[in-house]
From TrEMBL:
Pfam families for the chain: mRNA_cap_C, mRNA_cap_enzyme
Gene3D superfamilies in alphabetical order: DNA ligase/mRNA capping enzyme, Nucleic acid-binding proteins, Protein tyrosine phosphatase superfamily
Binding site for GTP: R170, R185, D216, G217, E218, K333, W334, K335, R406, I407, R408, V409, D410, K411
GO terms for MF: ATP binding; GTP binding; mRNA 5'-triphosphate monophosphatase activity; mRNA guanylyltransferase activity
Protein name: mRNA guanylyltransferase
Organism of origin: Acorus calamus (Sweet flag)
The keyword Transferase appears for this protein: yes
Localisation: Nucleus
Catalytic activity: a 5'-end diphospho-ribonucleoside in mRNA + GTP + H(+) = a 5'-end (5'-triphosphoguanosine)-ribonucleoside in mRNA + diphosphate
Length: 472
């Protein structure tokens, strides 16, 4: 516990913390497996100079068997057996486990600590709501709305960039100097051991690590060329840097700061730090890319089909928009028509009747006349076991029924009634890929887009020319 405290609170390496503890309480940690576990937990390489001290006399004298003879304490040996060697323990990082989007990641934290972290997130994103009690327990992350015939016109009125809509799990990430916290849709925090150095060059200061930096993103599962699965966090927004809110800045600035302040220092440290093992972290991280609206055709027809993870559409992000908590009417999502979906609360009522609910003003609202069917992988499932769960459903136009796509274990509440109506409107408007691309081809000819895209291309040309000069 003391070594954990020194590593997390005093930002020591494991080696420094073990030495500090041994100086204060000789001989220090005298169990090899404890030492190995510390290096493994904090993803650090164990130096060859670190050795396990012998069991102290005060410990030996207290461990007597029934004949009054000393008993060897488990794990005291300093042998080189592969099962207790620190390096080999670190190499046993699991690579072939089955990964799913429903996996629970990280370690739970005490409720009082979670409340403190919730308070910080609310104060950054919704400062006017910070003392409103019940509202502090609701996930404050920004949510897009479905693209329909009306809000499609926003693309003509504002300057937008586009990215693919990954089919993963939504998380905000709160980075602190003693670890990172994944924040799920239920506004629950779980700690993961990750390292995010800051741009500070003061090695003796706590400022050398990010503290209270808040990101938004999604966790996806990549299928690698060798068939293995790898978890990756795609960060697409930045709301606070070292406790200072940047949520009011335009997205273009936040996106650039995300790379400059968060990922550049991490990448530099990754290539120069001989102690910390980034490959031991539970998942990889990177900034998600956004592109000019003029690239949407390539994005849909070339990029998405070659992705190593699932994607179900596009996101249109206002380039000049601030970060808007909860529902953001200007943040647009377009899904392939067959992928448009609603998250319902499903219940089995009297007479084995299937009931679909959404939320309206915090209470359940029954959607009379809406049917749901369970097909494919759910065809043989005992539907009664799904009662009370959140199910994501797509719309079968031919059969005029909702079809269960998956169980949303990451959510505890259904969509709001307004969201349900917007998705139905999107389905009704039926903005197909062909319609979307035709509309965008006209939009990018508008002066607002043509002028800014010309400047963007010119800036990219200068950057490439500058890089070529540096290479020479």
């Amino acid at each position: 516990m003391i070594v954990h405290f020194l590593v997390r609170s005093h930002l020591m390496t494991v080696t420094q913390a073990i030495l500090k503890f041994s100086e204060a309480r000789p001989p220090g940690i005298y169990k090899q497996d404890y030492i190995d576990a510390l290096y493994t937990f904090y993803h650090e390489r164990k130096p060859k100079t670190v050795t396990c001290p012998p069991t102290p006399e005060w410990k030996r004298s207290s461990d007597l068997d029934l004949n009054g003879e000393a008993v060897q304490d488990d794990g005291d040996g300093d042998d080189d057996d592969d099962d207790t060697n620190g390096a080999s323990l670190q190499e046993k990082h699991v690579e072939n486990e089955v990964l799913t989007n429903d996996d629970v990641l990280g370690d739970a934290i005490p409720i009082d600590q979670q409340n403190v972290l919730r308070y910080f997130c609310i104060s950054v994103l919704m400062p006017g709501r910070v003392n409103q009690g019940r509202g502090n327990a609701q996930f404050p992350g920004s949510h897009p709305v479905s693209l329909n015939g009306d809000n499609l016109q926003l693309l003509r009125q504002r300057y937008y960039y586009a990215t693919w809509k990954a089919d993963g799990t939504r998380y905000m990430m709160l980075i602190t100097y003693d670890g990172c916290y994944l924040v799920d849709r239920n506004f629950c925090f779980r700690r993961v051991q990750m390292r995010f150095p800051s741009r500070s060059i003061n090695e003796d200061s706590s400022e050398r690590f990010h503290h209270l930096t808040l990101l938004d993103g999604e966790m996806i599962i990549d299928k690698l060329s060798d068939g293995k699965l790898e978890r990756r966090y795609l960060a697409y927004d930045l709301m606070a840097i070292n406790s200072q809110s940047v949520s009011e800045r335009p997205f273009s600035e936040r996106w650039k700061l995300l790379e400059k302040e968060v990922f550049e220092p991490r990448n530099i440290d990754r290539s120069t730090n001989p102690i910390y093992r980034y490959d031991m972290e539970p998942f990889r991280v990177r900034r998600k890319d956004f592109w000019l609206l003029s690239t949407v055709t390539k994005l849909l027809q070339d990029f998405i089909p070659r992705l190593s993870h699932a994607a179900d559409g596009l996101i249109f992000q206002g380039w000049d928009d601030p970060y808007v908590p909860r529902t953001h009417e200007g943040l647009l999502k377009w899904k392939y028509p067959e992928m448009n979906s609603v998250d319902f609360l499903f219940e089995v009522g009297n007479g084995n009747r299937y009931l679909l609910y959404v939320f309206e003003r915090g209470t359940k609202k029954l959607l009379e006349g809406n049917r749901v069917e369970f097909r494919d992988e759910y065809a043989d499932v005992d539907v009664s076991t799904l009662s009370g769960k959140i199910i994501e459903c797509s719309w079968d136009q031919a059969e005029q029924t909702w079809v269960c796509m998956r169980i949303r274990v990451d959510k505890s509440t259904p969509n709001q009634f307004n969201t349900f109506m917007k998705v139905k409107r999107s389905i009704s408007d039926n903005i197909t890929e062909e319609v979307l691309l035709d509309e965008i081809s006209q939009i990018v000819k508008l002066p607002m887009y043509a002028d800014r895209m010309a400047k963007a291309h010119q800036q990219q040309h200068h950057q490439h020319a500058h890089m070529e000069k540096r290479r020479r």
